[in-house]
Amino acid sequence: MRLICASALIAVASIAAFTSCGGTSVRAEVTAEKDRKLAPDFTLQDATGKNVKLSDFRGKVVLLNFWATWCGPCKIEIPWFIDFQQQFKDRDFVILGVSMDDDGWKSVKPYLEQKKINYRVMIGTEELSTLYGGVDALPTTFLIDRAGRVASRHDGLVSKSEYESEIQHLLDNKTTDDKNSKRSGLLRNSLAFIRAD
Amino acid sequence: MKIVAQLKPGYHCNSDKPSEDYLIPLKLTWTPAPLEVAEVVYPKPQMEKYAFSEKPLSVYTGDFDIITKFKVPASAPPGPAVLTGKLRYQACTDRMCLPPKTVDVSLPITVVK
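Structure tokens for the assembled complex are given below, as produced in the milestone run.
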């Protein structure tokens, strides 16, 4: 009969090595135009095999959503995006989904059909994630302005109204700079009024 | 053999038997040699409701243990050896999820007659 003598009985698996993630999401404001950086370009194939190149959408506001079929919070947002695609279909607006599922279309195609997703979805890569500053948490969503610059980034689930407000803001081309200049103008007018009074 | 897993506050990972098909289970697997796995015992999961789920989900939170019971086959050679395995898990908070991850687990042992 053989016996075993383990030299260590306890192994510690540090599942808690989650230091790279950003924790819970905070409300992301639309970045001022002057501070926006160009969204990295990419070309990926959609579910029909057609190429999707981000820079082909210049002149449109793009909602770029990284998600996965195993991600519960992502599944809350997808019906919102389906609504947005319908709501803003006559505006210069497009939604691009990037799935980070390891098994690619095997999991994603049935999900697209089941949920009747009405916007284009591609399969993402680690390279693309790195280009976008590391997409460690899902969902991660970028709003890209008409000039192809990143106007906001959301790590984690945010509210539908927040997305809606940002999309509307970018479609109306009301930049933070515009807002600031309007505020400055109002302030100047108020001061002029006080002086005149 | 016991693996002690620790999750940061606010995080959960799916149990070994998730309550929804789309969720990725916690799974510990071992390389067969030099011992045989008799049983992997996962802890009892908690049923927790999150903002993103309609129904409570079968999850683990905080610290928990995964126990493996091994058998020593007659063919196991005496002497030092290293048991190696992989722990796969996928963790989320109530607002976001991290990609599935696989961590290597190893345990030095000595087989004696």
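The CA atoms of residues 77 and 159 of chain A lie 8 Å apart. Chain A touches chain B at residues 2-16, 18, 21, 23-25, 68-76, 100, 102, 136-139, 155-157 (CB under 8 Å). Further analysis is deferred to the final report.
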